[in-house]
Every structure is written in structure tokens, then in C-alpha cells.
TrEMBL record:
Taxonomic lineage: Eukaryota, Viridiplantae, Streptophyta, Embryophyta, Tracheophyta
Protein known as: 1,4-dihydroxy-2-naphthoyl-CoA synthase
GO biological process terms on file: menaquinone biosynthetic process
GO molecular function: 1,4-dihydroxy-2-naphthoyl-CoA synthase activity
PROSITE patterns: ENOYL_COA_HYDRATASE (PS00166)
Gene Ontology CC, one term: cytosol
Length: 401
């Protein structure tokens, strides 16, 4: 259905609009502030016949396009396109064509169903859940009495849950979070720390959180950290290796490792932290990428804590929301991701990590190329020829520029 200017609009109103749109365009090009005159929004209605003033059809089309575009900016609500729905959380124009076609992201509360691991075992240190009827998995570190600090067993369970979410083709986005509102994760459990790592049920120590970091980084689905309260030490590194971070207003971010004795400043409070540890792997390199080397050095050398808004400004988190909205907002981000092409997202995640991950990054990206190539007729010809014990005929496949 074409939208045309209603014949009810007088030529005068139209002329005022045309002048205003030209002024606006000029100001916009010069990046100047433009005083927008008081004009009533021109209603756009379908009509079969159009005749306004002395304007040619071409001129009218140009005016119509400009008015539509300006109306989108100036009168987002109520919409000229009354049938369109709005995506409230999006920073983009509420009425762009994507939103007109796809509509709102659902704000319905999510229903979680407990999930078991691949061998049907119950988890102890984590909760693992999947959203009913949607492709979202949620993995929650469940040690709130220790601010969700992890031991080797916690990490083993996290690895199993992430493996399951990776293998489950109905899952397209994974949330990592911590139980309660006081902490996302406070890093390695210091009570389990030994001279060779962390140990709980074994006689030797491990630093197996490093395996989990690599797993998250290579997982071909987006992993979103949902952070309430503290994300510190190894817990801070965990949120950094996730693809996105949504933070509640009460979130606090920091590295504690280099601290020899006391006092790190946050909002003029002094915290007493004393752990003596560092993550010179992803914990350093990814941080430097995210917030720049100077800020990364500040974060590690001074061991300060940063609030959610400071973290957002630094580029550590994607969004800050009210604590009570944290889960729904995170779920909405997942739902928005889930509307998009899984293969595009898979390759993009790999591509965005490739340079930083060196050979391993290229290997992952290369693997994605092979994965896509296997779906082509050209690749299939090779396989068929082998199976049929004949020479492959690649002549029919174009050598594209
Ligand atoms: C996180 C805090 C700032 C919270 O302070 P708050 O005042 O809210 O709470 P409490 O301090 O009273 O804590 C409540 C309760 O939890 C226990 N707890 C908290 N964190 C841990 C922890 N990491 N380990 C063990 N226990 C913890 C605390 O003792 C209290 O217990 P009670 O029995 O007394 O009630 C604050 O708690 C804090 O600063 N925590 C320490 C955070 C920290 O320094 N983490 C870094 C550890 S090192 C690390 O994470 C790490 C792990 C690895 O596997 C690595 C591998 C390779 C390289 C580097 C690694 C690495 O650095």
C-alpha cells in the first residue's frame, strides 16, 4: 500500500514543511543546531488520487520522503505508521524499516526449565536452565555465600553446561550469571587455593578457569554476562571473555590480584582485599583491547573498583539497567540476537576475535569457512566424486572475481 499525502493538506502547509525540511537538511549537513518551526505532523494516508498545489509528482515524492524521514525523528510517538510497533530499548530510530518489519522484541517474562548435563547428572555448584520455547540457556554460578567464587569443581560444571548449550542446536544465546544480587562472581575461591592452583576434590591444584575462558571465546554462539553486584578478580575476567555484558546499577567491577595489602577505592569506601594473583592471559590482553592499555594498566596496577556507569563509559559493559530489570533486559538482548542469522553471528564472533586470538583465532575462522563450504554444491561435487571413484568435475563452478 503506497502512502500519499492526504488531499486535505493545503498547499501552504506543504510549503512550510518543504522550507523546514530544507533548512533542517542544511543545518544537519553543517552540523548546526536547527530551530524547528512549530508545524503539525502531516498525516499520511492512502488515497487513490493526488493533486497538491503546483508540485510535480517527482517533487512531491521527494517531499514525501523527507517528511517521512523527519517525522521519524521529530514525532516518534504517535507514529505516522500506526501499524508499526516500537522497539523501546533500541537506541536507533523507533520507526526504521527493520522495526516496521520485525516489530517489538517481546517483553514477556521468560519461563526457565532446569536442564541437566549430557549424562543426566545434577549440578551442585551451578544452576543450568533453558528458556521454555526460546533458544536461550542460562548458567548461574550458585555459591552466593562465597560471592559466587569458583573452585575447580564449579569450573568443571560450567564447562559441562557450556558444552551442552553449544551442542543443543535449539540454543542460540547463553547467559552467564551469578546467584543473588550481591555478586556475579568474585573469582577463584581463596579457601581452595594451594601452591599449584585451586583444589577441592583432588590432591593437586588446577587453574581450569583458563579452559573455561577459551571455551567461551570459541563457542559459536553469543555468551552474555548478566552482572549484578561484584564482578571481581577471576570473576571480572569471566565477564570480559563473554561477548556482551549487561550490568545492573549495583554492579562493581575490578581486579584485585595485584593488591599486596589493603585499600582499593570505590565511591570513597575502602575495601580490604589481599589476594596476590594476576591473570596475564585473557585477563590482561582482552582487557587492554576493551578499555585500552592505559586504562587496563590502571585497573590492574591500582586495583580500583568501578561502578556500573564508569564501566559502561570505559567500554567494559554494553548496557546498565535497573537491578529489577536486569534479567528481562538481558533476555530481550538474547531475543533480539535470536531473530538474526545464526551463521552470520557465528562467523562474526569468530571474526571479531580472530586477530586477538592469533593462530587459534584464524583456525576458528577458517573452520567456519569450511563449515559453510561443505554446504555448497561445489564441495559436494568433490565428496560425490570420491565416493563414486571418479574425477570431480569442477568445470561448472564459476571462478568469480
Ligand atoms: C567480592 C568482595 C569485594 C565482596 O565483599 P563483601 O564485603 O560484599 O563480602 P565479604 O568479603 O564479606 O564476602 C562474603 C563471604 O564470601 C567470601 N568470599 C568472597 N570472595 C571470595 C573468594 N574469592 N574466595 C573465597 N571466599 C570469598 C568471604 O570470605 C565471605 O565469607 P565469610 O565466611 O567470611 O562470610 C570481597 O569478598 C572480595 O574482595 N573477595 C575477594 C575477591 C578476589 O580477590 N578475587 C580474586 C581471586 S584470584 C582469582 O580469581 C583467580 C582465579 C584463577 O583461577 C586464576 C587463574 C589463572 C590466573 C589468575 C587467576 C585468578 O586471579
Amino acid at each position: 500500500m503506497r502512502l500519499l499525502l492526504s488531499s486535505a493538506d493545503t498547499g501552504e502547509e506543504l510549503i512550510r514543511w518543504q522550507r523546514a525540511t530544507s533548512d533542517y537538511r542544511r543545518c544537519h549537513q553543517r552540523k548546526e543546531f536547527c530551530n524547528w518551526p512549530k508545524l503539525r505532523p502531516l498525516p499520511l494516508r492512502p488515497i487513490s488520487y493526488l493533486m497538491v498545489g503546483d508540485y510535480s509528482m517527482k517533487e512531491l515524492k521527494t517531499i514525501e520522503r523527507r517528511i517521512a524521514s523527519l517525522n521519524n525523528h521529530l514525532f516518534p510517538k504517535p507514529s505516522l505508521f500506526s501499524e508499526c510497533r516500537q522497539l523501546s530499548s533500541s537506541p536507533a530510530s523507533a520507526e526504521d524499516s527493520y522495526r516496521r518489519i520485525h516489530g517489538e522484541v517481546s517483553e514477556e517474562p521468560v519461563v526457565w526449565r532446569p536442564a541437566l548435563d549430557e549424562s543426566g547428572k545434577e549440578f551442585t555448584d551451578i544452576h543450568y536452565e533453558k528458556a521454555v520455547g526460546e533458544g536461550i540457556a542460562k548458567i548461574t554460578i550458585n555459591r552466593p555465600e562465597r560471592r559466587n567464587a569458583f573452585g575447580p569443581h564449579t569450573i568443571k560444571e560450567l564447562i559441562r553446561a557450556f558444552n551442552d548449550a553449544r551442542d543443543d542446536s535449539s540454543i542460540g544465546a547463553i547467559i552467564l550469571t551469578g546467584k543473588g544480587t550481591k555478586a556475579f562472581c568474585s573469582g577463584g575461591d581463596q579457601a581452595l587455593r594451594t601452591s599449584d592452583g585451586y583444589t577441592d576434590f583432588e590432591s593437586f591444584g588446577r587453574l581450569n578457569v583458563l579452559d573455561l575462558q577459551v571455551q567461551i571465546r570459541r563457542l559459536p554462539k553469543p555468551v552474555i554476562a548478566m552482572v549484578a553486584g561484584y564482578a571481581v578478580g577471576g570473576g571480572h575476567v569471566l565477564h570480559m571473555v563473554c561477548d556482551l555484558t549487561i550490568a545492573a546499577e549495583n554492579a562493581i567491577f575490578g581486579q584485585t590480584g595485584a593488591k599486596a595489602k589493603v585499600s582499593s577505592y570505590f565511591a570513597s569506601d575502602i575495601f580490604h582485599v589481599q589476594v596476590g594473583s594476576f591473570d596475564a592471559g585473557y585477563g590482561s590482553s582482552i582487557m587492554s583491547r576493551l578499555i585500552g592499555p592505559k586504562k587496563a594498566k590502571e585497573m590492574w596496577f591500582l586495583s580500583r573498583f568501578y561502578n556500573a556507569y564508569e564501566a559502561e563509559k570505559m567500554g567494559l559493559v554494553n548496557a546498565v539497567v535497573k537491578l529489577e530489570n536486569l534479567e528481562l533486559e538481558t533476555v530481550k538482548w538474547c531475543r533480539e540476537i535470536l531473530r538474526n542469522s545464526p551463521t552470520a553471528i557465528r562467523v562474526l564472533k569468530s571474526a571479531l576475535n580472530a586477530v586477538d586470538d592469533g593462530h587459534a583465532g584464524l583456525q576458528d575462522l577458517g573452520g567456519n569457512a569450511t563449515y559453510i563450504f561443505y554446504g555448497t554444491e561445489e564441495a559436494n561435487e568433490g565428496k560425490r566424486a570420491f565416493m563414486e571413484r571418479r574425477c570431480p568435475d569442477y568445470s561448472k563452478f564459476p571462478r568469480r572475481p
